[in-house]
Amino acid sequence: MTINPPLDTSGTLNTASAARDAVGEAAEEVHTAYSLADAKPPLDEEILKVENLTVEFPTDDGAVQAVRGVSYTLHAREVLGIVGESGSGKSVSSMAVMGLLPKSARIRGSVLYRGEDLLRMRPGQQRALRGEKIAMIFQDPMTSLNPVHTVGDQLAEAVLAHHLVPRREALARAKEMLDLVGIPQPDKRLRAYPHEFSGGMRQRVMIAMAIINNPDVIIADEPTTALDVTVQAQILEKLLEVKDAVNAAILMITHDLGVIAGMAHKTLVMYAGKPVEIGHTDQVFYEPRMPYTAGLLGSIPSLEGDAQGRLRPITGTPPSLISLPSGCPFQPRCPLATDVCRQTEPPLGDIGDGHWAACHHSEKLAEVEDPTAFFHPDAQTAPSEGTGTDSEEGR
Amino acid sequence: MLVFIARRLFVSLWVFLAATAVMFILAANANDPLEEARQLPDNEREAALATITERMNLDKPVLIRYLLWLGSAITGDLGVNRQGQDVNAMLGTAFPATLQLLAAATVLAIVFGIAIGVISALRQYSAFDQSVTFVAFVCFSLPLFWVGTLLKQYIAVDINDWLRDPTLSLVMVVALSLLAGAVCSGVLVVDRRTRWTVFGVTAGAMAVLLLVLSATGWFADPGLGPVVVALTAFAGAVAITTLVSGLDFTSAPMRAALVSAGVGVVCYFAFGPVLNDPNLLTLLLLALLTAAVCAGIGWFFGGELFRRQAIPAAVLTGLFTAAVIFVDRVLQAFAGYAAHSRIRGRVISTIGPSTPNFEGTFWQHSLDSAGHLLLPTLALVLVSLASYTRYTRASMLEVMNQDYVRTARAKGLTERAVITRHALRNGMIPITTLTAYDIGTLIGGAVITERVFGWKAMGTLLQDGIEQGDPMPIMAFFLVAGGAIVIFNMVADIAYAFLDPRIRLS
Amino acid sequence: MRKKSAQPAGTPPTPGSADDAAQGMNVASRTQFQLVRARFFRHRGALVGMALFGFILTLAATSIGWGPIPGWWDKSPTATGVVLEGGRPTLGVWPTFLGGGGVSWGEHPFGQDDIGRDYFAVVMRGTQVSLTVAFLVGTVATVIGTVIGACAGYFRGWAEAVLMRVTDVMITIPTLVIAAVVAAMAGRQGIVVLGIMLGLVTWTQTARLVRGEVLSLREKEFVEAARSVGTSAKRIIFRHLVPNVVGIIIVSVTLAIAAAVLLETGLSFLGIGVQPPDTSLGRLITDYQTAMMTRAWLFYWPGLFIIGIALSVNFIGDGLRDAFDPRQNRVRD
């Protein structure tokens, strides 16, 4: 336990109670919607700057290149969504930011927190930031809490790991946080064990744990994937609320574009360990310039109904991270793939207005009205020089 | 919780009752009790057959004999064996010796097995882990009595011979030093460069220590003396506090532990006369007093912020210091013990649980028991240790991969806190079940070990009973052995529920 | 990190539906069996164990002959003879260039016992008996344990209660004790009866293991599916559950065999079990433990063979366990 100067408890308590006032009404009624539009706008201050991050895992079959060069900047109070399929490296890159990867991982690049490189810190310094300045919420709330300790103990522990305060005060803080995330009877629930909570309630506890030290960055790794759809929305709203309560930025990792849509200021799409498109969420959603993004959008069912009333899933499977295909890693599944795609991997190119995409044919996507149409089963009719059968090769 | 225990107790009783029936019927059929009598000369045969048949109720069906046994066993009467001796009396002399052996072996196997398993898991794939795994497999595969015989023939003889002129040869010094260095560096350090430093320093220190001890004739008349006791106590304080709350010499738990060690050293002198020839009760009371005083020290020094760490650190340090003083006293009694007329330098005994007709102080009796228990316990522990090590290692590895351990790290806890507070607690839950299972194996092992080392104890009851087809001694053995297993199973279940709130609260 | 994300019902088939495909992305071309085999052959201990066990088995089976297998060793385990050179072993293992006497078998590689029997032949006979008993015990115990464990795990209500209570009763009796009593009854009827009888009382560990596994499998979707289409309990147990616990069963067989070798030696030491004139490794050690200070080889050879068998089988079992259930040794990735 490092002994920090005592926590300015009065300050903390003020922040928290002020925060509670700010969201006062919202906390009372569970179903009050709290959308991105209500949230405090991002500031210019750069909190987290990831530059050219690569992660490799040595395995018996060769090195797995889980992350192959990720760069992004997270500003204060900003929400950045990272989208991708399993194995796209989105989780691994965030675990690298937290310093939670196994020792066998080979990490290169830099992760600057307020200008200091986390990857070059001593383990002790890195630990002091973890949970204090950068906190994380995990995917599966059912297994992320220790079954043998009370929720109160586990929350208080997060405070005590960073601040020299009596346990009593840490527990008081924990209670306050449970109240903030909307858990009824926080006094009683402090003494309960995780198995006495439902999945949604456990995820609220995880959120409480993440914000208990007023972090600058909250990394949420698929926080709603394991929850019921009805609970998902509540949890997302709660996340936005508490983000403003503690003035944190959020790194929102998900495979679900629907989650990002109402949540994130900016969106980063990852494929095979690399960012393939990044921009404001509106840009990525309405003017995708990378066929993969378009494909993801096409596979969201919409209530308004699509012209053909059918989904347009991307065929094939993501590539093996041990032996990537030549050229663009998406080319075996891409309806637009041409020879150049099979030869060279496209760099992330500036499209303007802070929008970047990694595709040789991004201008083609700009020309058509509905880029998702490329993935339509009758895609042969779409403007394409590639043979439509390419998409079958991934099978 | 109480309902849980009561229900568990009820079920256990019925299971145990059924087990006695199975055991009795099997035991009654193991051998023919009349075989020896049939070979007697004609004139004695009839009378002998009749006596035995009458004594063992052989004219009645097995089930009736079982019920008869059960009826008297409930009142505490275990009957007579084939020769007409009182089984209760036989059990009375056999039980204490076996209990000593089993208790020592169980405690040592659990403590060392779990400790080695945890370290092995935390240093997965290290040289230490690999060697522990290999040694555990060898131990798994050892026939117990083969090891016992080897220990008896070589270790006992060699140590006793060596004790006549206890100086260490250079080869021994080098070998022991290298071993100490390897163990220390394997356990403590992960980083390659520091590992060699630790190895060198430990091996060097060990070599110097052994050479000095050997040259001063320490092994013939050992003892720690006040300086060594004090140094060990303070080193123990630092080590214990490091485990409990981290290495920081300015922290409150460290202060509490160091003060406890200091108080312990003062008591070393203050209690000198009391400790000259105490009895077990005095020692237990002193241990309780130590724990109470140290808890107070921890409470006082811990203050509001650190009480939770300071009290255990202080109490553990106090008990550790007491143990060091105990060891010092036992060692000081060594020279007198070895010179005793009934011992004559043969300190490591290979026969029986104690030297017959031995008179001496409490410390000398302790040494006598230790000398008799050393090899049988070692043999039993070797065999039992392996399963604890493997099981603990597997359990810890499983737990270390759990999501909640990742959560604990994400909170920014130190690695020490992650392991002690989150991994260990969960990793120990399945071990409780193993202890219950292992006690059965240990009882079986004790039967064999007792025979190797010529103890007349519980194992003899079983063996004689089987040879003579006599269920009475077998059932006496089983009442104790099966009872121990039932009790261990219950304790394990309760411990399981205590450790795992999901069971406790459901 | 690439954990399978549980898709809540009703979630749209967003890219997450590619999850399952992604799980198999590196292994798509390998079957379950190939994976197990590959993992097994990466386990060094298991390979060494296999080699050692194969060597011992071959030696025991072919040297003095075993049933229909003819032997290449010219001496019989029963023929007595003149004790040469105090019966010392003539096996040489130090090559001459290392200053030894050269590698050679000699007349009596393992020496001779006190009545001049060739000790190599005797030890081989003991190995045959010990292995037979151990295999019988392992097989019988596993079959019974599997059936009882699978039924206790699958059925609810009285069947489970009865089977579990029976198991509890058996567990209450220490293995060595019940084995000793049973062996005293069966010892005189030959090694086959002995092996089967010992198997009848040592199945509890397997039953517990199998039950635990079946309990968790029972809740799995494919069992639900089978049940919902009206598949009979017998069919579900033997068609759906047992194949899925086959890994545990195979591991449990190996461990049971290793334990049985040690159990048999322990019983022999107590004078119960294999009875003269037949012999076993345990019997040999027991017979010659007093000879230890004078003719130590009579004590060492059978001991080394017991350790060799138990160790190699244990290592094979460990390799199989890792191969079937790599969870235990996985580092988080």
TrEMBL record, chain A:
Keyword NADP among UniProt keywords: no
Keywords: ATP-binding, Cell membrane, Membrane, Nucleotide-binding, Transport
Protein name: ABC transporter ATP-binding protein
Family under the similarity heading: Belongs to the ABC transporter superfamily.
Organism the protein comes from: Streptomyces bohaiensis
Subcellular location: Cell membrane
Membrane topology note: Peripheral membrane protein
Keyword flag Nucleotidyltransferase: no
PANTHER family assigned to the protein according to its UniProt record, in alphabetical order: DIPEPTIDE TRANSPORT ATP-BINDING PROTEIN DPPD, OLIGOPEPTIDE TRANSPORT ATP-BINDING PROTEIN APPD
Region entry Disordered, spans: 374-395
Pfam families with a match to the protein in the record: ABC_tran, oligo_HPY
Primary location class: membrane
GO MF annotation: an example: ATP binding
Annotated ABC transporter domain residues: 48-297
PROSITE patterns: ABC_TRANSPORTER_1 (PS00211), ABC_TRANSPORTER_2 (PS50893)
From TrEMBL, chain B:
Pfam family, one: BPD_transp_1
Membrane topology note: Multi-pass membrane protein
Primary location recorded for the protein, binned into one broad class: membrane
Keywords: Cell membrane, Membrane, Transmembrane, Transmembrane helix, Transport
Domain ABC transmembrane type-1 residues, every copy: 95-496
InterPro entries with a match to the protein in the record: MetI-like (IPR000515), MetI-like_sf (IPR035906)
Transmembrane segment boundaries: 99-122, 134-155, 167-189, 196-218, 224-244, 256-275, 281-302, 309-327, 373-391, 434-454, 474-499
Subcellular location: Cell membrane
Family: Belongs to the binding-protein-dependent transport system permease family.
Name assigned to this protein: ABC transporter permease
Provenance organism: Streptomyces bohaiensis
Automatic annotation (TrEMBL), chain C:
Entry superkingdom: Bacteria
Compartments where found: Cell membrane
Range of residues in the leader sequence: none
The keyword Mitochondrion belongs to this UniProt entry's keyword annotation: no
One Pfam family matching this protein: BPD_transp_1
InterPro entries from the UniProt entry: BP-dependent_transpt_permease, MetI-like, MetI-like_sf, OppC_N
Primary location recorded for the protein, binned into one broad class: membrane
Transmembrane segments: 47-69, 133-155, 162-185, 191-210, 241-263, 298-317
Gene3D superfamilies xrefs: MetI-like
UniProt xrefs under PANTHER family: D,D-DIPEPTIDE TRANSPORT SYSTEM PERMEASE PROTEIN DDPC-RELATED, OLIGOPEPTIDE TRANSPORT SYSTEM PERMEASE PROTEIN APPC
Family the entry assigns: Belongs to the binding-protein-dependent transport system permease family.
Protein name: ABC transporter permease
